[in-house]
Amino acid sequence: MLWFAQFTAIFGFSFAFPFLPLYIKSLGVADPHELALWTGAAGGASGFALALLSPVWGLLADRYGRKPMLIRAMVGGGVTVGLMAFARGPLDLVFLRLLQGAFSGTVAATTTLVATGTPRARVGWAMGILSSAVALGSAVGPFAGGLAAGRIGLRNTFLAGGLLLLLAVAPVILAVREAPFQRPARGSLGVLPSLRAAGGGSLAAIAVLLAAQTLLQLAFSGAQSVIPLKLIAIVPHDTATVTGLAFGVAGVASATAAVLYSRVAARTGYRRLAAATATLAAGALALLGVAPGVALVILATTLTGFCFGTIGPATSAMLGLEAPVAVQGRIFGLSASATALGFALGPLLGGTMAGVVSVSAALFTTAGVALLLGVLLSAAAREPQR
After folding, report:
1. Which of 84-93, 189-198, 287-296 has the lowest mean pLDDT?
2. pTM above 0.85, yes or no
3. What percent of the chain has pLDDT over 70?
4. Do the beta carbons of residue 279 and residue 374 sit within 8 Å?
């Protein structure tokens, strides 16, 4: 039931998010350079807010429970995404994206709930299954959203996405049961005590994983924000449908990788698998930069989705194995901040590079970030004990 709730929530988010550039264009931003900059600002706004508030939500999750935080994230996301349908200009959209980041965060809330209720030996498998819900929702959402946008319009697409998020609350309230947990002492609720509680060896390992998650999301969201701009140049008509198809196929690849990765990781180890797929992702992003047509864009986007669908759950599993149960809410709160920081900086980096230089330059830059991620995981990460 938790898988279904997460799938529905991500479906709602991704139902409209890939079409931000098209929506901003419909709000009166016609100049391609301005469109790229506003796309970066809107894409990054929610990430900055989420990065600032995720440690707070993680702290509250450890004290009051993970299930209430998941309900809060779904309701907050549903309301703010729905309100985007009524934006009067790009500035309104940026403001609502800030609110979305401040009050949502379903992935972090669900990840913490799963990590604290799963035996250590099954953490990798559980993270893969959860990531498959995220990836599949990200796959079906853009495809369905692209079809809907062509029929009901972009504004109503945002409204429908918000309603889907609110619907995801029902199975959480009715069917999800949180395992009993011990509330930590008040004096241990700070960010630094959370890291110290992980122990000497885990402290450095967690820091490396948090940096890796930032780089992962930086590369992913940076590419995701400019791929629609590339498709606008290639297919000026019916761009929403083609964009939905590209993200949809990539999401299916990501979901497949998330389900299967744990079998490969059992033989190779999480660290080696994540490092190798990060390097492969760099090549796929570079291919996107030179892709001359729709078919190659979809192929490269699919390969990128497969790679990110492996790296994401692998690093989350490593983090879950490194963090003590008593502070996992706070550790995953820090993880959400690290991910959100990358989510914020990625669109800004991609949008700025696309607006000032070119879309291809933006994609080459994200390829460089993915390559840096591979080097970091290979050189500095450690394989956690299972």
Report:
1. 189-198
2. no
3. 91
4. yes
Q: CA neighbours within 13 Å on the CB side: how many for 162?
A: 19
**How much of the chain, in percent, has pLDDT values that exceed 90?**
27
Angle at CA of residue 275, ends 270 and 276, nearest 5°: 105
Q: How far apart are CA 351 and CA 359, in angstroms?
A: 8
Q: How far is C-alpha 270 from the geometric centre of its chain's CA atoms?
A: 20
- How distant is the alpha carbon of residue 205 from its chain centre? 22
pLDDT for 288 equals: 92
Query: Which among 243, 260, 367, 344 has a CA at the least distance from the CA of 294?
Result: 243
C-alpha torsion 134→138→139→143, nearest 10: 150
Which residues, 6+ apart, have CB-to-CB distance to 159 below 8 Å? 82, 85
* Integer Cα distance of 38 and 25 in angstroms: 9
The dihedral sign for the CA sequence 224, 277, 256, 121: negative
Looking at residue 19, what DSSP letter applies? Answer: G
Class of domain 2-176+189-380: mainly alpha
Rounded CA-CA distance 17/55 in Å is: 24
For residue 168, the 8-state DSSP code is T
Pick from 309, 300, 310, 209: nearest CA to 251: 309
User: What's the rounded Cα separation, in Å, for the pair 172 and 181?
Assistant: 18
3-state secondary structure of 65: coil
Please say whether the beta carbons of 210 and 191 come within 8 A.
no
> Average model confidence (pLDDT) for the chain?
84
The pLDDT of 20-46, averaged and rounded, is: 84
